[in-house]
């Protein structure tokens, strides 16, 4: 029995260490298949030459995917600019879509036969599950609709991962922000008016498993805005930092649009959402509530040096937020 326990612990450690490998945009094909860290919130596109574009029509609904790699919760931001205009500011001004990071029918830990326990830990089928397999095996993804208000031409699609937790198996630490870019071509132009707010499509692995409302994502709080630096909180009480909600930019824009009676896009159920096939072991009286308020920043958070294949600076940053 003792031998089995030791072997099980070793297997968990191996799964954690091999799969905590960060991620990048897989589909459509990104400029390079490498994770790129954006600690300062100033990256437009990572280094990498432009590639032959993938062709789509304006307004087309397309499949998108990336690797889960052990990280917990979070959001994906989608932005698009004409080719040759890939600055961070231009992307920030042309955000058109947000999805949940853990969305898609294949975005599930490799734990066949286990019952879902929302109060479990990383080795359980829970909110905080590891992949329980090698890196780059558990694919997350969604369907997004490309803008239907742009003229035909060559564009660059930016993928931004933010609001995820669990950095190098530290569940109390935020995972850093990652960026990828993909070259696309719109073969036809759109004829619609640009909406006042980016579209948000909620629903992820956790909301599906727990039969919750799909107008939200599970994420590491308070990072529902793209942060600078890396927030590190208490590993011993990490569950308190994970919440359900929307990206702050969506909240702010919807509130402003409602006040002007111009709001166009209510949140939708994810296009790839499935009914839960996990029976829930334990129930709680209520779910964590969404936080919508700004929060003061009074401390500096050290930046963890990423792995060798994606170097970043090693000095400390103030943990602040940018307009995501």
TrEMBL record:
Species this protein is from: Pythium oligandrum (Mycoparasitic fungus)
Annotated Acidic residues bias: 271-302
Biased composition (Low complexity): 303-312
Protein name from the UniProt record: Auxiliary Activity family 9 catalytic domain-containing protein
Biased composition (Polar residues): 315-324
Region (Disordered): 264-324
Lineage summary: Eukaryota, Sar, Stramenopiles, Oomycota, Peronosporomycetes
Gene3D superfamilies linked: 2.70.50.70
Keyword set, alphabetical order: Signal
């Amino acid at each position: 029995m003792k031998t089995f326990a030791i072997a099980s612990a070793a297997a968990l450690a191996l799964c954690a260490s091999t799969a905590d490998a960060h991620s990048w945009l897989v589909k459509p094909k990104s400029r390079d298949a490498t994770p790129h860290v954006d600690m300062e919130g100033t990256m437009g596109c990572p280094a990498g030459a432009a590639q032959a574009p993938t062709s789509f029509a304006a307004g087309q609904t397309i499949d998108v995917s990336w690797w889960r790699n052990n990280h917990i919760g979070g959001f994906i931001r989608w932005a698009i600019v004409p080719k040759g205009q890939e600055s961070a500011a231009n992307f920030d001004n042309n955000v058109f879509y947000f999805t949940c990071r853990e969305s898609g029918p294949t975005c599930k830990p490799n734990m066949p036969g286990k019952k879902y326990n929302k109060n479990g830990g990383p080795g359980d089928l829970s909110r905080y599950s590891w992949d329980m397999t090698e890196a780059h095996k558990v694919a997350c993804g969604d369907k997004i609709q490309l803008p239907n208000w742009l003229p035909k031409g060559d564009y660059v699609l930016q993928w931004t991962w933010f609001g995820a937790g669990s950095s190098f198996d530290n569940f109390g630490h935020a995972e850093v922000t990652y960026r990828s870019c993909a070259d696309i071509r719109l073969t036809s132009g759109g004829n619609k008016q640009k909406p006042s707010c980016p579209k948000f499509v909620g629903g992820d692995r956790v909301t599906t498993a727990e039969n919750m409302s799909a107008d939200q994502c599970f994420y590491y709080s308070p990072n529902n805005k793209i942060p600078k630096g890396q927030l590190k909180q208490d590993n011993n009480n990490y569950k308190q930092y994970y919440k359900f909600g929307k990206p702050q930019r969506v909240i702010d824009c919807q509130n402003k649009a409602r006040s002007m009676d111009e709001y166009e896009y209510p949140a939708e159920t994810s296009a790839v959402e499935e009914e839960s096939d996990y029976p829930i072991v334990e129930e709680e009286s209520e779910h964590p509530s969404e936080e919508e308020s700004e929060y003061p920043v009074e401390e500096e958070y050290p930046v963890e040096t990423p792995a060798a294949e994606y170097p970043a600076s090693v000095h400390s940053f103030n943990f602040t937020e940018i307009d995501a």
